[in-house]
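Entry type: protein chain
Record version: 2
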Amino acid sequence: MPAMRVPIYVVDAFASRPFTGNPAGVCLLEEPAAEAWMQSVAAEMKHAETAFVSPREDGFDLRWFTPSTEVDLCGHATLASAHMLWETDRLGEDEPAVFHTKSGQLACTRHGYGIQMDFPAEPVSGTRPAKASVVVAALGLEDTGQPVGRNRMDMLVEVASGAALRAIEPDMEALAALGGRGVIVTAASDSPEYDFLSRFFAPAFGVPEDPVTGSAHCCLGPYWSEKLGRTDLVGFQCSPRGGTVRVAVRGDRVLLQGHAFTVLAGEFLA
């Protein structure tokens, strides 16, 4: 069980200013905590993910919890965790944040564009999944043979336009019944500022629509890199809060870049 007074922060990640992007809880621990306690804290925080960071000799252990379950990979809460390690002087500003996670070792560094994270690429397979028509119907769309793919965590569906993407109103119950973590929906950008747009739904994990999903860009980066013939891209997740993710595809790794803002600092007393 952690100490009685545990620092907790809320950080807006992949944000252009406070109260945009994706809010994450960040709990800075002196030692690893019990899994049940971490899940209770995440349920109390009610953010898409709360990160739990504890020191070790070669960096930090990092785990991520939604309000209902632990997840294997989370981008925005990793960015938020690195931000807090620098902001609280647990790391020097030139030191990398090295995290040991269920998805292997992840490293974050300060970068000209905020914070850069080195993540595994998570491309979709080339075969249209058997559940393609089911996921398309759950999104409230007609199945016209549009591209549908799957990786180890999520389904991906490409729609015809940014307008079609913004208009989607999914059947959350039907999406939750699909299995897996969630569904990424994407379209080519209708703005010169961005290369592609996306939304992300994970109702089975307690997150009906995620504001900005770093880990989804581990899939979106390779997908749009192949389609557009470029390795350096800018994505915008067009949720109501919205957020920008810069993506650089480097073989089997994806570099994700974004900004973070601390909006709340406090302590857990239980």
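Comment: Residues 132-251 form a domain with the Diaminopimelate Epimerase; Chain A, domain 1 fold (CATH 3.10.310.10).
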